[in-house]
Amino acid sequence: MNDEIKVVVLRYPDRPNLVLAYTDPTSGKRKTKSAGTADEKDAWKAAATWETELLAGNHCPPSKVLWADFRKRYEEEHLASLAPASRQSAAIALNRIETYLNPDKLRKVNASALSTLQTKLRATGIRETSIATVLRAVKAALSWGVSVGLLATMPKINMPKGSKGRKMKGGALVGEQFDRLLAAVPKIRPKDSAEWVRYLTGLWLSGLRMGESVALSWDATALFAVDLTGRRPRFRIKGGGQKSGRDELTPLTPDFAEFLLQTPESQRRGRVFRLNQDGGTIPLSTHNVGKVVDRIGRKAGVIVNAVDGKTASAHDLRRTFGTRWAKRVMPAVLQKLMRHANVQTTMQFYVDLAVDDMCDDLWAKHPAAKSNISGNIDPKTAGAEESADAVNPSGETVC
Known about the structure:
Blueprint: E1 8-10, E2 19-23, E3 30-34, H1 40-55, H2 67-77, H3 84-100, H4 111-123, H5 128-147, H6 175-188, H7 193-206, H8 210-215, E4 224-227, E5 234-237, E6 248-251, H9 254-261, H10 286-300, E7 303-305, E8 310-311, H11 314-326, H12 331-338, H13 343-349, H14 355-365, E9 390-391, E10 397-398
Antiparallel strand pairs: 1-2, 2-3, 4-5, 5-6, 7-8, 9-10
Helix pairs in contact: 3-5, 6-7, 6-10, 7-11, 11-12, 12-13
């Protein structure tokens, strides 16, 4: 047992019970609590118990825990049980700390250092939301360190202003923009354009995250698979394939189900989307798939954010799916379709996006549909009947 944390028994004349105390090696402050007894023998037993608890999981006092040792334990004892995406996010954050702070001791990753980290990240030109993502992963790592006794206290982390209300960088596509994406595919992938057209169509219909789409398999043993054993097609997700770590069945939409069932039964083996390196059989990584979709978006000239000129990416197809279905289903159903852990995420990102479209639908179905933008009804058209069907920009009837 390390002797730098040593709990002792003290007696104060103004207290009936004995007191347990030790000096915190990180702050240098005296920590005390009542032993709960006036009996010296029992008090020393309580002191031994508390000392064991303080040192549980530590092979050296918190003030001397090396950063490298902390990271190794965090990766082996905690991150190993998480989904691949969570492990990757944590690794990026920890790498940022090593790149910009290079701490030798864990305790040096304090409030001041984390403020410096923000400044250095900002100087690279990355977005505030990306800085916030790094800091959330750092916070999770340090919280774990506190929970196992490697770190005495949690340092204060000031999140970037505006990071709490995250905003979309891109936006939903309309049918004409999607058609331009498909038309640009042969210019970027001439050798396997058919498979890439199929892939983009799958993203448009499914709302899959890019990592999910690359992993999606026909095989029941896969982490993320198509399940055709129920009354309706669905996704079967194993715990190792998502952040929550839980096995789960989630619905997929009828149009994506019809798309999948176009694949002959004899070909329903392995990956649903077979995206390989040019002219080969080696699968592309998720990162490289994303780069190809980005190139297609730039080639097609599909702008999804007029402020910074951002062109369409794979995630914009997911946003399009979410926006489209936000008009058709309740938030709780949309949450399942999007596979969000929290319905508030669904509400924040998608439900309010459809408000203008919903207003258009309501006005189109109202007898006084032809009015000016301020809402003042034109008396000449107040009795006119309008079609009960509204059509969205992609040409689909909104139900």
